[in-house]
Amino acid sequence: MDAQSMANSFVVACPTDGTLNRVPKARLSAQPLCGKCGDPLFRAEPLVLTDANFDRHATKSDLPLLIDFWATWCGPCRTMAPAFEAAAAQLEPSMRLGKLDTEAEPHLAARFGIQSIPTLILVRNGRVLGRTSGAMPTPAIVQWAEQVLAGG
Predict the structure, then answer these.
(1) 106-118 mean pLDDT
(2) 62 dihedral zone (left: phi>0; alpha: psi -120 to 50; beta)
(3) Which helix (H) or strand (E) covers residue 88, if one does?
């Protein structure tokens, strides 16, 4: 692949098996499939982030990743969950959305200095572009993420 083709494409991690796929930017919204497993690269729903798949999506993929740090015991987190899911349908394929359970993955929460939940952090290529805490409705999540991405 030549330099221009690489500049006009994104590396996108498959939500099913983590395979890194190179997708032309113009084809991101054309429902691309994973070259290995054949599953859709975008599902319009948040991905469950774990230690096993986190770096593939947060650092190895060119796609920005909006992370919802949450826990099952957190009332505001449970309240915001449907709004975050709805935001995934609106924000993909310009970014991937993922949920990270701070109880199941405490070392990843510590890596980002999570002190309160829910906390949203937008990262691209492993670099934090923005963060905010507190439950938000879908329009606020979408607006905040788009605003941070535009400035980042």
Answers:
(1) 97
(2) alpha
(3) helix 75-91
- According to CATH, the superfamily of the domain at 44-151 is Glutaredoxin (3.40.30.10)
Q: Which residues contact 6 (CB under 8 A, 6 or more apart)?
A: 22
User: Can you read off the two tokens belonging to residue 17?
Assistant: 């098996």
Distance, first Cα to last Cα, the chain: 28
Which distant-in-sequence residues (6+ apart) come within 8 Å of 4 by Cβ? none
Q: What is the mean pLDDT of the chain?
A: 94
Cα gap 125→55, rounded to integer Å? 9
Q: CA neighbours within 13 Å on the CB side: how many for 13?
A: 25
The residue with greater pLDDT, 57 or 4, is 57
Q: What is the CA radius of gyration of the chain?
A: 15
Domain spans of the chain? 44-151
Q: Is 14 a catalytic residue?
A: no
> Helix, strand, or coil here: 79?
helix
Q: Which amino acid is at 147?
A: Q
> What is residue 3's predicted lDDT score, i.e. its pLDDT?
54
Catalytic residue among 14, 34, 37, 74: 74
Q: Which of 14, 34, 37, 77 is the catalytic position?
A: 77
